[in-house]
Amino acid sequence: MAVVEEKGQEKYTEDGTVDLQGRPVLRSKSGRWKACSFIVVYEIFERMAYFGIATNLVVYLTNKLHEGTVESSNSVSNWSGSVWLMPIAGAYVADAYLGRYWTFVISSCIYLMGMCLLTLAVSLPSLRPPQCAQGILDQDCPKASPLQKGIFFLALYIISIGTGGTKPNISTLGADQFDEFDTKERFYKLSFFNWWVSSIMIGVLFSSTFLVYIQDNVGWAFGYGLPTIGLAISITIFLVGTPFYRHRLPSGSPMTKMLQVFVAAMRKWKTLVPKDPNELHELSIEEYACSYKNKIDHTFFLRLNQVT
User: Which residues in the chain come in under a pLDDT of 70?
Assistant: First the structure.
């Protein structure tokens, strides 16, 4: 275990986290619930915004853009797939280049741009087809023009790019606010994820009830405008907490390191592993602590230790 750095009576974190300028951070003035409160409140508003769009999207495509049910469902499925695939790229950029904070901030701006464009697309009469006359089935109504559909789906896919950078980084940024080398903070980290899931459920519940009612009974402009305002509020709340956040410096993508392990294990497949773990190529406990890493205990069951 690394020796705790002290300045007067104040202790620095021991897990390698720093402030936004890359300087060591004092444990008493950063992280923990002081920082996570901003992140949890952000998540409530952000989930409200996302599910405020996603929950009723098929209804908008069929009733307002006059797409068929099958076509609408297919369009929503394709968009949902992109929303869940983009975080792979967002996580890679954060780990290898920008770090979680800046990847999140940039992606949030992209996310908000998409939400604003989507709100305009449902609000301006020129960006949607004319309303059906009474008694005419939706599938027989005038279809949306290529321009109208193009702007609407452009907004949706801008949102998917934005969520690709926010979704994988906000929860891990929250976890970074607790020092793994401190027993009390390690316990608090488990509690954080309970609050995290609760914040998601609150946002989903609000959007699936209140916002869906607004969209169906008041209007789509107002029903999409509220989530957009909510997202803007959530980003503002997150930025207010910036002085309290702890950050990890980019250290390369874990996916690259995992591939290196598999390649090295394949090359050394027939290498004999010493029965005595002390003969393995390992750093000392002090060296692991200085690099803010935990030593992984040797096991005879996981055979990828041939890479050593």
Answer: 1-10, 135, 137-139, 273-308
